[in-house]
Design a protein that fits this description.
The protein has 422 residues and is α+β, with helices and mostly antiparallel strands. The chain is built from eight helices and 13 strands. It has helices at 62-67, 73-85, 102-112, 210-213, 253-270, 315-318, 331-340, 394-397, and strands at residues 15-16, 34-35, 41-55, 89-95, 126-129, 166-170, 180-181, 224-230, 233-239, 293-299, 369-373, 378-384, 410-420. The strands form two sheets. Strands 1, 2, 3, 4, 5, 6, 12 and 13 form an eight-stranded mixed sheet that branches. Strands 7-8-9-10-11 form a five-stranded mixed sheet, with no helix packed on it. A hairpin with a 5-residue loop joins β2 and β3. Residues 1-32 have low confidence and may be disordered.
């Protein structure tokens, strides 16, 4: 769905699960894409992916209920998409957060680890999830409608704590002791923050009161830096899901927040003085060190030329000299844009790069989901899972009401070379 994810509250709870021996018929943990020679550099071919899976539900406990048995049609279809594409590291957006990693574990055991329509099961020994700001009551009237409470007054839009969360599955070890989260970083602490104006006054940046700004985080869900060990090296998985730049008014509070949520990662990967203002949930300051390898993953809710985001929002990342854009594409996206017409006919972006199938009358399809590696990593392939009508897999993307999600899985293949084997 188009409304984005925001999650839970309370003390930060992080879960890492280590699975047992892969089930019979499962592919090897690296999908046989590694090349290792004694005394020579280790080469590892790795597929990174992001997928807004729309595995969100309308009430607490519903996702656990749906995943507790193998019979949920949507979860089965989502798992089949993943089994077809076989990412090594994948971020799922819009996956309700449940403490203790319960929902993530159930999806892994009852869906990913079970063959879907003859596809080989997937085993992910490492899983990371953590609370988010979605559905966390703020105690303020953040939308200025004269009432306090409800999804629109939460720290991040959500009807309950944990709705629209996110989870990372990985075939490679996650360095849990080095994970950084930025759920509590205050929006007002970003230099030059695009704080919204109240159109009824002449003051600048006054939509929120001083008290509200003292509690309002930048991240509508959370921003995570999750280091993963691959080929003897560390790759920082930078995961987020900025708020959609819609569902507001003239003040454009969501569009401004979306833009600054995207900017956060650009400053973070640049490091140095550009990131000196940043602090994580443990109080550590700064961004990445020079030369660090990273991949930015997530539904950024922003297209360079189309949609409702502020001009230049996603270009803050795409134009960063440390970031490369492999431009994943699909023939299915081009076909869908032509067939659906309406708003799509007036879009300026090339339809082959679209990743989300939004309603056609006013929004149309856009590029919303990104896998953006650092320039220190070598890209070998990329794509968007959006088959043309009638092609294998097209039944898993479909048309509204979608069997899976209104977003498509996006992947980028990288070749990493590590140190010498010992």
């Amino acid at each position: 769905m188009r409304v984005l994810a925001l999650c839970s509250a309370g003390v930060l709870a992080v879960s890492l699960l280590v699975a047992g021996v892969p089930a019979a018929g499962a592919v090897p943990a690296d999908d046989s894409r590694s090349v290792t020679q004694n005394g020579q550099p280790i080469r590892q071919d790795v597929r990174f992916a992001t997928y807004n899976a729309s595995l969100n539900r309308s009430a607490t406990g519903e996702l656990v209920r749906d995943l507790s048995t193998p019979g949920n049609a949507q979860a089965s279809a989502i798992a089949e998409v993943l089994q077809i594409n076989r990412p090594d590291v994948v971020l799922l957006n819009e996956f309700d957060y449940v403490p203790g990693n319960r929902a993530a574990d159930l999806f892994s055991r009852n869906y990913l680890g079970v063959s879907q329509n003859g596809k080989a099961p997937l085993e992910y020994p490492y899983v990371y999830t953590a609370p988010s700001n979605t559905g966390v009551p703020s105690g303020y009237d953040l939308n200025n409608d004269g009432r306090i409470g409800g999804a629109d007054d939460a720290l991040g839009f959500g009807m309950f704590e944990g709705q629209y969360g996110m989870v990372i599955y990985s075939k490679y070890p996650i360095q849990t002791e080095s994970v950084r989260t930025f759920r509590n970083f205050l929006w007002k602490d970003m230099p030059g923050a695009l704080l919204p104006d109240n159109p009824a006054t002449e003051a600048q940046g006054d939509w929120y009161s001083a008290g509200e700004l003292g509690d309002l985080p930048l991240s509508s869900k959370s921003h995570w830096d999750v280091p993963v060990s691959i080929a003897g090296r560390t790759v920082h998985v930078l995961a987020s899901h900025p708020t959609p730049p819609v569902f507001d008014g003239q003040e454009d509070r969501n569009g401004r927040r979306n833009s600054d949520e995207i900017r956060f990662w650009s400053d973070y990967v640049t490091g140095g003085g550009d990131a000196s203002y940043i602090y994580d949930d443990d109080g550590a300051a700064g961004g990445l060190k020079r030369g660090e390898r990273f991949v930015v993953l997530g539904d950024q809710n922003s297209d360079s030329l189309d949609g409702d985001s502020l001009d230049g929002s996603i270009d803050q990342l795409l134009g960063n000299k440390l970031v490369q854009d492999p431009l994943p594409s699909s023939n299915g996206a081009t076909e869908a844009s032509a067939l659906q017409g309406s708003a799509n006919a007036g879009h300026r972006s090339d339809a082959q790069f679209d990743t989300a199938d939004f309603e056609d009358q006013s929004a149309g399809n856009i590029r919303a989901d990104y896998v953006l590696p650092s320039r220190t990593l070598r890209v070998t392939a990329s794509g968007v899972f959006w088959p043309r009508a009638g092609m294998p897999g097209a039944e898993l993307t479909g048309i509204y009401p979608f069997p899976t999600s209104d977003h498509r899985l996006v992947f980028v293949d990288l070749t990493l070379t590590g140190g010498r084997q010992r």
